[in-house]
Amino acid sequence: MAAQELYEELRPGAFAIAYRMLGSASEAEDLVQDGLLRLHRVLEEGERLESPRAYLSTVVTRLAIDELRSARVRRETYVGEWLPEPLITSSEADPARHAEIADSLSLAFLVVLEGLSPEQRAVFLLRDVFDYPYDRIAAIVGKSEAATRQIATRARRHVDDRRPRYEASERRREELAERFFAAAREGDLETLESLLAEDVALHGDAAGRRRSPAPCMAGAGWHRRSPAGSSWVVAPGASRFGAPRSTVSPAR
Fold first, then answer.
1. Taking Cα atoms as reference points, which of 28, 118, 68, 39 lies closest to residue 126?
2. 84-136 pLDDT tens trace
3. Where are the alpha helices (DSSP H) in 114-236?
4. Tell me, what's the pLDDT at 99?
5. Across-strand partners of 204?
6. In Å, how far are 108, 204, 208, 215 from 79, measured between CA atoms?
């Protein structure tokens, strides 16, 4: 296989890890490109790799851990709440494949992952999303296998504690999302509020370009109190029908 063909074959898997680690498509693309350049240099130097895919996933994961550590320092000076960047997917994507990856790509899931340390996030994703064996994960994060299992257990507990109590069917979520977006587009505030639970919470991120909402606004009337132009995310458990995992924008 030619080198370029190899890189193109490896890129999607590396991006899948990087995006779930960083919550930003643009940062994930940069990180994957860095990883591919490192792989290219190693191959050009004549080093024999048992598995280029394993090498790239290890490099990408370690780079992502370093990036998350530095990102946490940067966000200490960020004014307002930081939310992950939604991944825009093609409407022509294979429905079966979309259903398979939807949960681990949902914005609500990525928000939950923000509460994990960089190492916990890496271990949780590699084990529970990508099904890596513990011995391989341990080698990637530089921990013993026993320590890696403990990290996975703590991370899993954190994620489970923040999942919705009730899971609606995919069809029910789609139905609710359609009604929600229709009400938002039409400015139908009464219908909009009827679709939300009383304890719904708004989390906003204006990307530092405009005034953000308060860090968290609670109650079904949050849309009346939030500034126009902000990004909105409906927290898990927000709807009366099992919570769509969606980002929404204010009605214009």
1. 118
2. 777 765 544 444 444 445 566 677 788 889 889 999 999 999 999 999 999 99
3. 118-124, 134-141, 145-161, 170-186, 189-194
4. 45
5. 232
6. 21, 12, 7, 10
Nearest alpha-carbon partner for 165 in 100, 235, 233 = 235
DSSP single-letter state for residue 16: H
What is the band of 229 on the pLDDT scale with cuts at 50, 70, 90?
very low
Report domain extents, the chain: 1-82, 170-248
> Angle at the Cα of 153 (from 147 to 158), degrees rounded to 5?
130
How high does pLDDT run on average in the chain?
A: 76
Kindly state the tokens that stand for 122: 């890496």
- Which uninterrupted H or E stretch holds 247? strand 247-248
Secondary structure element (H or E) that encloses residue 28, with its range = helix 25-44
CATH of 1-82, one of 2.40.30, 1.25.40, 2.30.30, 1.10.1740: 1.10.1740
- The dihedral through the CA atoms of 143, 126, 159, 20 has a sign that is positive
Q: How far is CA 124 from CA 88, 103, 127, in A?
A: 23, 14, 5
Q: How far is CA 247 from CA 11, 87, 106, 235, in A?
A: 27, 11, 9, 9
Structure token digits, residue 43? 């191959």
